[in-house]
Amino acid sequence: MKILITSGGTTEPIDAVRGITNHATGRLGQLLAQLFLDKGHQVTLVTSPGSYRPEKHKRLKLIEVSTVNSLQNVLEHLVKDHQVFIHSMAVSDYSPVYMTDLEDVMASKDLSQLLKRHNHQGKISSSSDYQVLFLKKTPKLISLVKKWNPDIRLIGFKLLVNVPKEQLLQVARTSLHKNQADLIVANDLYQIKQDQHQAYLVSAEGYQTLTSKPAIAQAIYERVISNDKNHPPRCQR
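Structure tokens predicted for Phosphopantothenate--cysteine ligase (237 residues):
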């Protein structure tokens, strides 16, 4: 099979030296890519600079992206040419529009006009005590996947922070339905540590509880290679 995997995290530039990013390492994406390669599949890994990635392999195609826009441009073409898409990359929810002094914002009579401005300097001055950064929402790329390829098998990820288990599962079920996904891997940041990663694999049949990155990768692999949807791995409800 041809497997498409995203990993790591995007960075949205504020200026030439600053950006908004996240703490995603790409470790789980690395494990997934290596597992599918070891089992004889072709893997395209779309990842960010500095993220974990497998060793070079004849069946591995590696593509680096940095921003949401560059990721979207790459995925729109790749999704059409793969059978399975595992979207584990942490994608920025917002992108910078304009950064300016607080005094400029307070003096403005129409804040909407500031949204039409852009920073052209290579490095925004740090002389002011306070700066205001305007952000705009980025596209939810997972919502576009089935439009690009209705037949692709889609595994998405959902990360929340310190929420009740049932809330995490409900958000994952909503994403599963909304994005027409086969699986959603639901995580809580408070349950992710260096040697432990509790997650729930949520499908239409129920969910599986897993407690480490290798276990998550193995469970996703088993779901992907299973052609018999009437006999999925045992799930809780």
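Residues 2-93+140-225 form a domain with the Rossmann fold fold (CATH 3.40.50.10300).
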